[in-house]
């Protein structure tokens, strides 16, 4: 029935786009969000990562020399209490309902609306995150949440996380958000260093290269070079989570230039690909 209607519309020269008005327009965010929100493949992937993180955490606790950030630790770091530094969004907190809302409304991220979203306290926990965090907490490991959520989003985040059952650090402030201190910008290494002064940081966890290194803001080639130089960390004391929805990988593909229009950014991303070309017949 639908096919014959479309065929009839074509024959009559009617405007087919009108038939698409029942739902949102095609959106580059859709497949990534459907994968992260509905697929067993995503859940199994992150479950594997949390299992690996737990194994590595046990090894780290048994080895006083173990550090994920040896360049940021003081000389006596083996004597310090143990901590993990983790990102929040799409590492421990799942904001798929926000991404779904963007798709449903045909709009894109904006900072003010994001604050409203955070303060709605409707993020959920990434699959497997709470089991891992509670395990770490049970071993006396302090968990620092180094997030680029902003200072006005601290309290909403705290209430959301407490309701979900996240370990919150007791009398230590473990929500180290962007802008809470003057020099805490979007680059995270100085916040990681802030933790590493007083704790043996045994693991970094994130979904974005920037959760591990300020090299995230480099070009595609610079980011690849950083990967080559950091191979020993990955899967050992740095654990990367998948996020095909957004991240520094996307910015790198269009040169980090947000003044470009959505169409220009999309064209740059396509240009970053190296397509196979079928041989001419
Ligand atoms: Mg994140």
Automatic annotation (TrEMBL):
Its Gene Ontology cellular component terms are:
cell outer membrane
Listed A to Z, the keywords are: Signal
- Chain ranges passing through the membrane: none
Q: Which domain of life is it from?
A: Bacteria
Among its keywords, does the record have Lipoprotein?
no
The signal peptide annotation in the UniProt record is: 1-20
The record ties this protein, via InterPro entries, to:
Acid_phosphat_B-like, HAD-like_sf, HAD_sf, Lipo_e_P4
User: What is this protein's name?
Assistant: 5-nucleotide phosphatase
């Amino acid at each position: 029935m639908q096919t014959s209607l479309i065929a009839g519309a074509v024959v009559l020269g009617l405007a087919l786009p009108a038939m698409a008005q029942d739902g949102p327009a095609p959106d580059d965010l859709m497949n990534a969000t459907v994968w992260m929100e509905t697929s067993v493949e995503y859940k199994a992937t992150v479950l594997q990562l949390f299992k690996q993180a737990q194994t590595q955490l046990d090894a780290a606790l048994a080895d006083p020399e173990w550090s994920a950030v040896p360049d940021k630790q003081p000389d006596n770091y083996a004597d310090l209490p143990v901590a993990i530094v983790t990102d929040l969004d799409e590492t421990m907190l799942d904001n798929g309902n926000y991404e779904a809302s963007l798709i449903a409304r045909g709009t894109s991220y904006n900072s003010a609306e994001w604050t409203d979203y955070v303060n709605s306290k409707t993020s959920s926990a990434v699959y497997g995150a709470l089991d891992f965090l509670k395990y770490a907490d049970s071993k006396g490991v302090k968990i620092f949440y180094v997030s680029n959520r902003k200072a006005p989003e601290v309290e909403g985040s705290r209430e959301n996380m407490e309701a979900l059952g996240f370990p919150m650090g007791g009398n230590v402030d473990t929500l180290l958000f962007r802008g809470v201190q003057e020099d805490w910008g979007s680059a995270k290494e100085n916040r990681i260093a802030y933790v590493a002064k007083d704790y043996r940081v045994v693991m970094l966890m994130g979904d974005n290269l920037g959760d591990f290194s300020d090299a995230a803001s480099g070009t595609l080639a610079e980011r690849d070079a950083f990967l080559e130089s950091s191979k020993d960390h990955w899967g050992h004391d740095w654990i990367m989570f998948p996020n095909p929805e957004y991240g520094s990988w996307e910015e790198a593909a269009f040169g980090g230039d947000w003044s470009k229009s959505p169409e220009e950014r999309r064209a740059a991303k396509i240009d970053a690909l190296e397509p196979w070309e079928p041989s001419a017949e």
